[in-house]
Amino acid sequence: MAFFESVSKVDFEGPKSKNPLAFKFYNPTEVIGSKTMEEWLRFSVAYWHTFTYEGVDPFGHENMIRPWSHLKGMDLAKARVEAAFEFFEKLNVPFFCFHDVDIAPEGDTLRETNKNLDIIVSMIEEYMKTSKTKLLWNTANMFSNPRFVHGAATSCNANVFAYAAGKVKKGLEIAKRLGAENYVFWGGREGYESLLNTDMGLEQDNLARFFHMAVDYAKEIGYDGQFLIEPKPKEPTNHQYDFDVATGLAFLQKYDLQEHFKFNIEANHATLASHTFEHELRVARINGMLGSVDANQGDPLLGWDTDEFPTNLYSTTLAMYEIIKNGGLGKGGLNFDAKVRRGSFELDDLFKAHIAGMDSFAVGLKVAHQLIEDKVLDHFIEDRYRSYTEGIGKEIMEGRANLKTLEQYALDLPEIKNESGRVEELRAIINQYILTAF
Predict the structure, then answer these.
(1) What's the helix, strand, coil split of the chain in %, to 5?
(2) What is the pLDDT of residues 133-181, one digit of tens each?
(3) Catalytic residue among 49, 61, 70, 99, which?
(4) How far apart, in whole angstroms, are the C-alpha atoms of residue 258 and residue 211?
(5) Catalytic residue, candidates 57, 61, 75, 102
(6) Any catalytic annotation for residue 99?
(7) Neighbouring C-beta atoms of residue 349, cutoff 10 Å
(8) What DSSP designation does 75 have?
(9) Are 111 and 103 in contact (CB under 8 A)?
(10) Of 172, 179, 247, which is closest to residue 215 (Cα–Cα)?
(11) Tell me: the pLDDT tens digits for 242-259?
């Protein structure tokens, strides 16, 4: 059965195209530097937002009636697989991602859930044999079911810890079976609401134990995908243990896990942590921990995770600047952890939203590449820090200075003069590059 009959394969038609179902800037075969656009961007469709989201928000019921909406249980799950691979083929994306409960319904027990997963995974496996679209990453949903009210690996209930461990064991087996390039841990409820009833030390120790168990089991079964942690602040607990990249990095270093994990960074999560998207990417990059990206954006007027499709060209440019400087995303990719707005309820809107996001990152890629080629920011930064390339600055950098020598140097310094940071000029230059890129 064809679910998207009104849409043919989405092709690149160029910036002058008026076709809403065509790419204007994303040309997968166009070479930018050393790679094609498809190789740089490694786009991925999020199974949950695209095929299971029904338009529900805190104030309204579902309003997105899909061709598979009338089905239930395993019939619904099977129809979504069929719809998904039709969507992947027509959009021509290389990857997709899912949580376990996205693809198969939960049973009354973990055993029943695993049986459901086995059926759907077999179906996905068959589709993947003839599809170019591969699995970027999978993960276990350990936040929706009421059993996870107090967390999963950080729960005060050991039975919940055990159940979560069973879900991750199955998830790793699925990852190996489907050739997932990564496995993601998003600690949706790994945090606390109040210290009055929380043993923070025990919870963090248990979270580390959980991660070590996952590392050990992946080795046991021969799964060599990259492990990723996805930081997120505030939602749904007041204090998330994976608040941002810096917090997550400190946790990994404390528990000797940094060699086994990198970060999956989401744009909207960065802003919830009062950071810019590029800040989180930079912190991960300079520490060798940039693994993958969940590509979306938030609404600055709203204080929650709105998961909008990315269309801010300034943001995509600065994001791609970090990704190019990183040499690319390796096994990672740009996963559209984004959902169409509740008012965009027609089936074609799913394609139009992804096209908008893919075009936006294609623009960001070309602009960022040109900025790097022209060394616009590199030259300015090198000049700004030139005082560390000679004299006392060089002594500091080479470890030859100490407090005594620095005091002697500073005692008779005349008035110290600083130079302008020229932020506005640099922002204007980036605007110029964006506006003249095509």
Answers:
(1) 50, 10, 40
(2) 999 999 999 999 999 999 999 999 999 999 999 999 999 999 999 999 9
(3) 99
(4) 11
(5) 102
(6) yes
(7) 15
(8) H
(9) no
(10) 172
(11) 999 999 999 999 999 999
239 in active site:
no
Provide the residue type at 16 as one letter: K
pLDDT single digits (tens) 297-307: 999 898 889 99
Q: Cα 284 vs. chain centroid, distance in angstroms?
A: 12
Is 190 in contact with 241 (CB distance < 8 Å)? yes
Tokens of 406: 């620095």
d(CA 321, CA 435): 16
Contact 388, 396 (CB under 8 A): yes
Tokens of 327: 């040499």
Name the residue with tokens 């090198």. 382
Question: Is residue 329 classed as helix, strand or coil in its secondary structure?
Answer: coil
| pLDDT tens profile 26-84 | 999 999 999 999 999 999 999 999 999 999 988 999 999 999 999 999 999 999 999 99
CA distance 189 to 191: 6
Look at residues 128, 119, 140 and name the one whose alpha carbon lies nearest to residue 74: 119
For residues 139 and 116, give the distance between their C-alpha atoms in angstroms, rounded to a whole number.
Answer: 16
User: In angstroms, rounded to a whole number, what is the distance separating the alpha carbons of residues 313 and 329?
Assistant: 20
Q: What is the DSSP string of 127-172?
A: HHTT-S-EEEEEE---SSSGGGTT-STT-S-HHHHHHHHHHHHHHH
* Distance, CA of 207 to CA of 190 (rounded, Å): 8
How far apart are alpha carbons 41 and 307 in whole angstroms? 19
- Token output for 281: 């990417």
- CA-CA distance, 218 to 225, in Å (whole number)? 9
Which residue reads 């691979």 in tokens? 85
User: Is the predicted pLDDT of residue 351 greater than 90, yes or no?
Assistant: yes
For residue 10, give Cα distances in angstroms to 163, 345, 385.
42, 20, 47
Give yes or no for residue 234 having a pLDDT over 90.
Answer: no
Contact predicate 131/88, CB 8 Å: yes
CB-side neighbour CA atoms (13 Å) of 33: 21
Structure tokens at 438: 């095509």
* Ranges assigned E (strand) in 255-374: 261-266, 290-294, 334-336
Alpha-carbon span 268 to 308, nearest angstrom: 8
- Phi, psi of 97, rounded to the nearest 5 degrees: -140, 155
Q: Specify the 3-state DSSP secondary structure of 67.
A: coil
